[in-house]
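Quick one: structure for this chain?
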Amino acid sequence: MNYWLVKSEPFKYSWEDFLQDGWTYWDGVRNYQARNNLKNMKKGDQVLFYHSNKGLEVVGISEVIREYYQDPTTEDERWVVVDLKPVETLENPVSLKQIKNEERLEGISLVRQSRLSVMQIEKKHFDVIVKLGRKSS
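Got it. Here's what it folds into:
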């Protein structure tokens, strides 16, 4: 299993929109590195959902439910989508500030490649973010 992070501006497509829809295809990617990351996603992979631009925080966990296929929003065959479904809303959204200040997240691709909209992350980083986002007992 692999671990990923996708970014969405909440005013365009928020976690709440995603929950209401129940699933979505991840479209609009027009960067080759991000596109290649979509192509590498496998069914069952876990994906952190990050609110970019406004919010700047990881708000939930989703899962790949269909591997890449032609982006239905364009006829250009270079661009692809994957289908995602929401799995869990993080009770404590994990802010970019927290991520940057957390030693265990040193080297995370979210900070190293801050403009990339779809990125692979290490399992250890995924686990730390999920732990920070779940409500403490």
